Amino acid sequence: MCGIVGYTGSKDAYPILIKGLQRLEYRGYDSAGVALMNDKTTLHKCKGKVVDLQNHIGSGLTTGTAGIGHTRWATHGEPNDVNAHPHTSMSGDIVLIHNGIIENYDSVRKELIHRGYTFHSETDTEVLVNLIEEIKKSEACSLSEAIRKALNEVIGAYAIVVMSNSEPGTLVAAKKSSPLVIGIGPDKDYYLASDATPIVEYTKNVVYLEDGEIAEIIPGKDLKLFTIQKQNVTPYIQELELQLEQLEKSGYDHFMLKEIYEQPRSVRDSLRGRLNLAAGLVHLGGMADYEQKLLNANRITIVACGTSWHAGLVGEYLIEDLARIPVEVEYASEFRYRNPIITEKDVVIAISQSGETADTLAALELAKSKGATILGICNVVGSTISRTTHGGSYTHAGPEIGVASTKAFTSQVTVLSLLALMLGNKKGSIERSKFLRLLYGLNEIPEKIERALQTNDLVELISAKFKDASNFLYLGRGYCFPVALEGALKLKEISYIHAEGYPAAEMKHGPIALIDEEMPVVVIATKGPSYEKVVSNIQEVKARKGVLIAIVTEGDTQVKEMADYTIEIPETDEIFSPLVASVPLQLLSYHIAVMRECNVDQPRNLAKSVTVE
Ligand code: F6R
C-alpha cells in the first residue's frame, strides 16, 4: 500500500526520493509524487507509476536537500493527479504525505470549511494538513507542536512526514498503526521510509517509530523523539540485517520468478538452526518459551489473510495431526469483528509475511486485550506484528518483492511444520520413530523443491495451452486442499483469470456444474492416504469432459492415463506435500501471466503490504 520516503541532509534529495519510491513500488500504488524544499516547496505529482512521475517532471525544478515522496494506493478518492500526495495546506506553507486513513476526516473537514478553508482533493490527507496549518497559525507554535496537537484530534491510522516553508530542512514524522522507519546516515543526514528497503543502501542504522511517537528531524542534529502526550523518548537504534543484493532481480525477468527459484534456499534458511538431525530434535527459538502455553492451550487460533491464511490452514492440519491440539484458522478481518470467545487459556498465532497487515494486527490486539498469549510467524524483521507479539519465529525467507507471495508461503509452512513437530514431540503424540522419519523428510524438502523447479519448461508449455482460458478450477484433498486454494489465488491475482480452489470431494456439491470441455481443472493428486479418492474425483471431471492438469508423484501411472497433462514432483511424506506441490502451481500462474502480458510483480489493484483494513 502507500509508500512513504523522505530525506534531509546535505545531498540532493530528488534522486534519493525517486530511487526510494522505485524500491517501494512492490507495495502497490496508483499515483506518485514528490515535494522538494528550496526557499519554498516545489511539488510534483501525478496519476500512474514512478516513471510517469519522472516524465511528468521532465526538466522541471528538482533541486533541494530535503524532500518527501509518496506512492498512493487510493482509499478516499479515485487515483488522479489531484488526489495524489504530497498535499499542501491552503496557504502553501505545509506539505504532507500520509499512509493510512483518518476516520473522522469528514467532521474535521466541515469544521475547517467553517473556518474558511477550501479543499481541492477528495482525500482525508488534505484535511490533516489543513488542520495542522490551522493549529500552527492559531496557536503560533512550531511545526512539530502543531502536528502533535493535530494528531490528538484525529482518529485513525497514519504514518506521516511533514515539511514547512517556515522551517526549511526540518522533517517531522509520526506514526500510528502504519509503519515508518528512520535511517540515520553517518553525517546525521536522515532517510525515512515505510520499510527499510529504500534506506539500506545509505545506512544500516535505523529507528522504527512506535505508535504514538513523533520525530523531529533536523540534519546535523540528533534525532528527537517524543510522544503525542509530549513525553520525550530515547531513540532505540537498531542495525539492519537486510542486504542490498536481496532487493535486486539478479538476472531474472521478474521478482516473482526469482523468488520462486529462491525457495530451496529460503526453506533451508527457515530450517537452519532449528532442525537438529543428530540430536533428533526441533528447536524453534521464539516459540520454545511458549511451549507449555501452546501445549496447554484450550485452542490455538491462527489469524491471517490471503496466502498467509492458506499457510495457516496447512498449519491447522499439521498441529492437529501431529500435536493433537485443537486449532482454528480465522480470516483476521472476520475474527476482529465477530466477538470471538478468547480467554487467557488461548494462544493466537498471527501469520504475516509483511508483519504489517492491518487486519491481522488488529485481530492480535483484540486477542491480547482478552488475555490470550499472542505469537507471530512473520518474515519482515522488526515489523509491527513481530514487535506486538509476546513471542514468535521469523520465517527468514528474505525480502519478498513480488506482490504475489511465493517463497513466503513455503517458509511459513516450513515454520508451521517445525512447530507441529516440536509440539508433537514434546507432548508424545508422535511416536519417536515417526518423529525422526519426519525430521529427515523435512530436511530433504529444499532438495525436492529444487527438483520440482525442473518442471519449469513443461509448465511453460502447458501454460501456453491455457493462457486464454476464462476460468480454472483447482482441486485437492487433505493437505493439498490449501494448495488448491493457493494455486487458484496465485492465478487470479497475477493473470486476472477467474479461478476457484475447492476440496476435491466437495466439487460434486456445486462446482461440478461448471465443468465442460472449456474448463481446465488442476488437480493435486500426489501419493497419500486420499490418493484413491482423488482418482475418483478425477474420473468425475473426465466424465464431464473437463480438461485435466494433474500434479502427481514421480512415477505415477494411474492418474497419468486419465489426465490431459501431468506434472511430476518428487515424493514426500503427505504432510510436507504443500511445500513441493505448490511450486509448479506458482510457475503455472507466473507463465500464464507473462503470456497474457500482465504486470506480474505489480498486479493491478493489489498491494504488497495491506496497511488499511
Ligand atoms: C497473495 C498475497 C496476499 C497476502 C495477504 C497477507 O499472493 O500475497 O494474499 O498473503 O495480503 O499479507 P501478509 O502475509 O503480509 O500479512
Task: Offer a few descriptive terms.
single chain; 613 residues; alpha/beta; Glutamine Phosphoribosylpyrophosphate, subunit 1, domain 1; Rossmann fold; 3 domains; eight-stranded antiparallel sheet; seven-stranded antiparallel sheet; 21 helices; binds fructose -6-phosphate
Would you write up a description of this structure?
The chain has 613 residues and is an alpha/beta fold. The protein has three domains: 3-245, Glutamine Phosphoribosylpyrophosphate, subunit 1, domain 1 (4-Layer Sandwich), CATH 3.60.20; 249-443, Glucose-6-phosphate isomerase like protein, domain 1 (Rossmann fold, 3-Layer(aba) Sandwich), CATH 3.40.50; 453-601, 3-Layer(aba) Sandwich (Rossmann fold). Strands 3-2-4-1-10-9-11-15 form an eight-stranded antiparallel beta sheet, covered by helices on one side. α4 (124-138) packs across α5 and α7 (263-271) packs antiparallel against α16 (445-453). The longest helix has 21 residues, at 407-427.
CATH topology of the largest domain: Glutamine Phosphoribosylpyrophosphate, subunit 1, domain 1
Distance between the termini: 11 Å
Strand order in space, largest sheet: 3-2-4-1-10-9-11-15
- Quickly name the level 1 CATH class of the largest domain: Alpha Beta
**Alpha plus pi helix count:** 21
Q: What spatial form do the alpha-carbon principal axes imply?
A: globular
| Secondary-structure-derived class | alpha/beta
Ligand catalogue: fructose -6-phosphate
* The named CATH superfamily of the largest domain: Aminohydrolase, N-terminal nucleophile (Ntn) domain
- Binned strand content: 15-25%
Helix content: 25-40%
- Looking at the overall shape, the CATH architecture of the largest domain is 4-Layer Sandwich
Low-confidence segments, given as residue ranges, are: none
Mean of all residue-level pLDDT scores:
95
* Rg over CA atoms: 25 Å
Largest beta-sheet characterization: 8 strands, antiparallel
Total of domains: 3
Number of strands: 27
